[in-house]
Amino acid sequence: MKVLFVGSEATPFSKTGGLADVLGALPKELVKLGIDARVVLPKHGVTKQKFHNQMKQICNFKVTVGPKQEYAGIEMIELEGVTFYFVDNEYYFGYRDTLYGHYDDGERYGFFDNAVLKMLEEMDYYPDIIHGNDWQTGLIPYILKQNYQDKPKYKNIKTVYTIHNIAYQGVYSKDLLPYLDVEFNSELEFENMINFMKCGINTADFITTVSETYAEEILYDYFGFGMSNILKTRKNELFGIINGIDYTDFNPKVDKKIGYNYSLFNYLKGKRENKAILRKELKMGSNKLPIIGIVSRLANQKGFDLIEEVIEDYLKNNKMQLVLLGSGDGYIENYYKDLKKKYPKNVGVHIGYSDELARKVYAGSDMFLMPSRFEPCGLAQLISLKYGTLPIVRLTGGLKDSIIPFNQYTLEGNGFGFDNYNAKDMASVIDLALDVYKDKKIWKMLVKRGMEEDFSWEQSALKYINLYKKLEEE
Question: How far is CA 353 from the centre of its chain?
């Protein structure tokens, strides 16, 4: 079976979020299981800087973009058994220093989607399934059906479309239409605008999202961001498969980016050493307080309004220390900068992103806080479990599917969780976690249970293979 993944980012070539981790790891796991899985990405500026000299040129051709004929070069790298293709266009991708946020993103990714489909005949490579990801690839199933169905080699290609975060839909004025090289109809339009994600949802053969609970949640208005009624019409073709993590990468036993490697058998020393390193790096006080870590995009979705309501009580009364790594909303950034000034010994803050520092937070924290308003999957809670850092989460989306709340009567669970999105419920669960932390026997049992969890990509890859087989049978 031949599966071509299409997306806007994948590690190690480009990354702004969890999508990159998925497209860097899932195809690799599928190859191990006998699937011919390949990936196609834009050749972003950051990709060009790091990997240009390693790329092999395959072909080039022109893509119609309104009145223009734009150059598309196809280049290739093989990495860990996976073939990665890159669509090269200096104007749309190579000259840009970021992946998104440009005035012409709709035109850029419309060009990309058209180039991906034209690439197939130029290379004489026809996958059984094209697996698109997020709004940037939402036009592909539509273009395939509109522009290529009279070409015999395209006729049997099936499409899967994965929603990683339904809040980001790729919405643009209808003025963009002449640049997309497709006809306009209701499958493309939403509220008198062009909506890339709606187009993918409407026209893909199967739709997936990144956890079973999120697949259920997005059928409701609160989570669906306007797409819930459309998704209800496709309910029988909608599936949830939770993401995994790559344990060859995220593993405290071999992680070269943390200060002290450890495993289940010496995690107490590992935690002690890594907490000391983290405190020193973030200029915090040295004490025996538990550390709660946060590695996150700083956005309202992530529950920062809840944290702001209650966090100062914990800090001023020396109940815990807080470490935050992330960037985003200016108000949230400034709030945590001020919090560091107010409680310098109990707060560590790094505004920005550093993969190395993120690993140090996972390794050096005792608990990991994720009180998200919604969370399609979440990878941080899976990583933190492996590093012996117990998650405190709101039970939504993938957090609900991966974290079993601690039950103080049966001692079941692998973390701590609350249901209702309010600060009082979150504080009650933080209090419970801090109390359990004092009982070293129970805490050690929970850490051991978390570190032994298997959220490897193999489990998820097997589910995707079953889904692909189901699609091919239809």
Answer: 15
